[in-house]
Amino acid sequence: MNTDKLIITAAICGAEVTREQTPYIPLTPEEIANETFLSYKAGASIVHLHVRDEAGKPTQDIRIFKKVIDLIRNKCPDLIIQVSTGGAVGMTPEERLQSIYSGPEMASLDVGTTNFGDDIFVNDMPLIRHFASKMAEINVMPEFECFELGHISNALRVVKEGIIKGHLHFDFVLGVPGSCPADVRNVMRMVDSIPQEATWTVSGIGRHEFEMSMIAIAIGGNVRVGLEDNIYLSKGVLAKSNAELVEKVVRMARELGREIATPTDARKILGIKVS
User: What domains can you pick out in the chain, each with its CATH number?
Assistant: First the structure.
């Protein structure tokens, strides 16, 4: 069981949340960078990064990713930047893959097809191998995004095939409508299915965010929170920033005796070498 300091990932804006749902979702490069900085100050050591175009719609445009990353590194140079290769449902694989060439240290690697609300998020094995190979070529560390228990098998398959080497890190995304439910039994099944030396994070979607966070903190995992996954600080109360969500996790961790990892701590835990 991993009992290292707690790594908190801030998922700043995602691809789905709109201003109609919450006025606090950041959309412009400057807004995303500022929200990232506030989350970093609150205790996040990784930012999970999506970007939006001028109309506020999801995009994988490498130019926008580079602009946002430059702004973030100017504000918090030691923060670990993890870009999304999930993009949004309906994007082509090559469109989704653009983000890894914007200079991050990590990238999400979706390791299976899943129902995503009323849509289908397609990630077949050829696509998984292709994305993994490209990440390996440019030394970007993958975070295996697992929406279902079987996705872990897909991740371990590309490891067994030698495509991905080094430390393995998983993110269990639980509570997406149509995918694996968010409950403690599913968390434990997933933890028991990964190599003992691997690290893991849990992302609880919507109302499950803090329940899943508490479980992860208590049993030695790590936590992802942010407006991408959940827009509420408590029932009926909108979070006014990503930092408020990070701050709540920090308070929970302190109550349970977990120290918060700095970016330097997180790099050591994840085996990320400083370039």
Answer: 8-270 (3.20.20.70)
